[in-house]
Predict the structure.
Amino acid sequence: MNYNDDKINMTHGAGGEVMQDMISNVILSNITKTSVNGGIGLEQLDDSATIPLYDDHVVVTTIDSHTVQPLFFPGGDIGRISAAGTLNDISVMGVKPLSLNNAMVISEGFNKADFEKIIKSMDETCQEVGAAIITGDTKVIDKDKLDGMIITTAGIGIGKKENIVSDAGLNEGDKIILTGSIGDHGMAIMSQREGFGYETDLLSDVAPVWSMVEAAQSKGKITAMKDPTRGGIANALNEMSDKSGFGLYLDEDKIPIKPAVHAVSEMLGIDPYEVANEGKIVMGVEPDNAEAMLEAIKNTKYGANAQIIGEVTKDKYVLMETSFGGERIIEPPIADPVPRVC
Amino acid sequence: MNYNDDKINMTHGAGGEVMQDMISNVILSNITKTSVNGGIGLEQLDDSATIPLYDDHVVVTTIDSHTVQPLFFPGGDIGRISAAGTLNDISVMGVKPLSLNNAMVISEGFNKADFEKIIKSMDETCQEVGAAIITGDTKVIDKDKLDGMIITTAGIGIGKKENIVSDAGLNEGDKIILTGSIGDHGMAIMSQREGFGYETDLLSDVAPVWSMVEAAQSKGKITAMKDPTRGGIANALNEMSDKSGFGLYLDEDKIPIKPAVHAVSEMLGIDPYEVANEGKIVMGVEPDNAEAMLEAIKNTKYGANAQIIGEVTKDKYVLMETSFGGERIIEPPIADPVPRVC
């Protein structure tokens, strides 16, 4: 694959280093104004942007197009992922999601019953956090010009400035919490595509993460946070390390991986660290409250398997002590190994 | 065409009555929470939604997917329309657009130079109103699964509650201002597709409308407002009439149509009243200030050909006095006659 020719290729949208390159060189370099009122803007490449208001409040907003294939997969569908994906990008800024904007581009001939299922699934997901769907747009295009459907959701949350958590705020000594098992979503998609989807007990983890953020915040300070979607925890942890200037030291034994995910990842030769999750968070927390925050997360619907997986170091690397007692550098992936994962 | 079978067809996304039906029966009926804090929400089907804040301010937000074909057309490109379309939906709520979220789904193999042109065009359009592009998302999908690119933009404006203008507020006696000639965008797209695009002087009108809203508001009160995109002024005027419960009486001689638009519409048998505009506004204004507001609009970059085209009546119809002295009812279109117009 040639990453530098004059055409866009799959890696340009795969959430890894090639995509970051394109964003910097083609997108950021051509946009004049990238933030409002000194808020977090496009250049920070955080999960959401912020618009500070005239007092101590702030509007948090984000957008994501969802192109997941297949549209229905074990554990979820494009409706659930379109809602959860955007609600989660707001949530990991530390603020409760209030509302979604929903834009759908549908292929002519799309089955109406499936369409209705997708809308219902989107609504159910919003209900889990009490978010409203307040505005939308519907376009239909010729069936030979689009496969299935694309759902783009934007979201808004409004909160206090003091609660905003960027992905750049790690400090030396912070503990790293991972809220559950890794690779479930990407591997569920892959195994479905490979034709053994419903023969395993592999389910996508797609879910709204807000309750876990709220629980953690009730017990202490989150210093940095991301939801590890495209590029998996390998990408999220490296981004948090890069942006803070600190390193991470992780304990492989603490990182939960389900046996079915492990089996499928071995079979397909895909690293579960580099695969998308859709209902997990990696967060840095102040060490003194780490245990209390972990317990609070464990008591939420989606947080039962949360773990403290490591801590922030002076180094520049994301380093992991392996189960066999060795050490391994977790590199940022070039791209997500699973195309159209979200 | 059967509008009621079990598959989605082109009319379901064409901005007319069939689309309104689907929105009511499949989308609205399945969504539990459609507004926040008593603001304008999904059910109002207005150009944007509003989130009232804790004091006298309000957040205005909207979303639109842009699937225009061809991507480059006389007078604009998908970048300009993606920015203007969303900035305009905020503007016609009476509030200055602050920021855009930009989500792009790109077909593998897309030309990078074209991609960069599109980003630049988007940025230039934002600069006309001082809006920032604060967050984004990029996805790439296989070239046989998507034709070209889809750009979805969401936008935010923040203003005072007292300045919000819905599309439902017409009162009997209000004057109707149209800010310029109709059909330019839809006809430019059609004539380009039919192969005589660059032989006519037909240019899309795609442009940000904010300066016209600001000018009008400086001289009086706007009672209702829409930008007549899909379905043209026929759709916009009928929606404003329906929602207010009042009728309209229009003067055909006052509605500006460029000779090239007239010629192409005759040739293709397409009614310019039903065709998308991308840089125009129809607004209801208090009669006492109508002339002053018109003059203010005429002094802006895109408002030189603005006209008072009629007034609000007790009737329930959108009625027009024709150039020949007869009367014609302007019906709401079933669908926009130009597919993939925006």
Chain A touches chain B through 86 residues (CB under 8 Å). Chain A has a mean pLDDT of 93. The CA atoms of residues 13 and 290 of chain A lie 35 Å apart. The helical segments of chain A are 17-27, 78-91, 112-129, 184-193, 210-217, 232-244, 259-268, 290-298.
